[in-house]
Amino acid sequence: MTGSNGHASIDAAVPQVGIIMGSDSDLPVMQEAATVLRELGIVFEMTIVSAHRTPRRLYRYAEDAVARGLRVIIAGAGGAAHLPGMAAAITPLPVIGVPVKTASLSGQDSLLSIVQMPAGVPVATVAINGARNAGILAAQILGASDAVVRERIMHFKQALEASVMAKVERMAR
Ligand code: RP5
């Protein structure tokens, strides 16, 4: 799972988005971020970084992220979900947090752990299991300063609208 495995982008071979997760048990959810980044032609990397089980790896990952070319980090975790907040504490890059649904508390624990950051250390938190939106948001952050990516986001939005309008027309028949 480690390493660059996103689609080749027109303008970058180096991963621009880092997808990290606390455990391989988060992969089925976090895979959705990878899928949409592939759809948008954004180069990403994806790996396991546990705030609790591999704290030194977390520190290194977040500290080296800018130098390695990352521009956004998506961090997913469940339960006592400290990974996104700790990554945000270390790196100057924007961090998007994905609360992963848990068996015991349905992800309420993950959500509250991620969203309640102290002033000065924001994490852009998406919905429980909202990894697809995290991927889209990461692309939008890149698109703020990259016209090629911005154009892809516009097409993506047009396709979304078209898919709804097709349903509207089907329902009217
Ligand atoms: C968190 O604990 C992970 O993000 C995962 O969601 C949760 C459970 O991890 P495992 O016990 O399945 O490895 O650190």
From TrEMBL:
Residues 15-164 form the PurE domain. Substrate binds at S23, D26, R53. Its EC number is 5.4.99.18. Pathway: Purine metabolism; IMP biosynthesis via de novo pathway; 5-amino-1-(5-phospho-D-ribosyl)imidazole-4-carboxylate from 5-amino-1-(5-phospho-D-ribosyl)imidazole (N5-CAIR route): step 2/2. It is an enzyme of class 5 (isomerase). One of its GO terms (molecular function) is 5-(carboxyamino)imidazole ribonucleotide mutase activity. Keywords: Isomerase, Purine biosynthesis. It catalyses: 5-carboxyamino-1-(5-phospho-D-ribosyl)imidazole + H(+) = 5-amino-1-(5-phospho-D-ribosyl)imidazole-4-carboxylate. This is N5-carboxyaminoimidazole ribonucleotide mutase. Catalyzes the conversion of N5-carboxyaminoimidazole ribonucleotide (N5-CAIR) to 4-carboxy-5-aminoimidazole ribonucleotide (CAIR). HAMAP family: PurE_classI. The keyword Isomerase applies. Belongs to the AIR carboxylase family. Class I subfamily. It comes from Thiocapsa imhoffii. One of its GO terms (biological process) is 'de novo' IMP biosynthetic process.
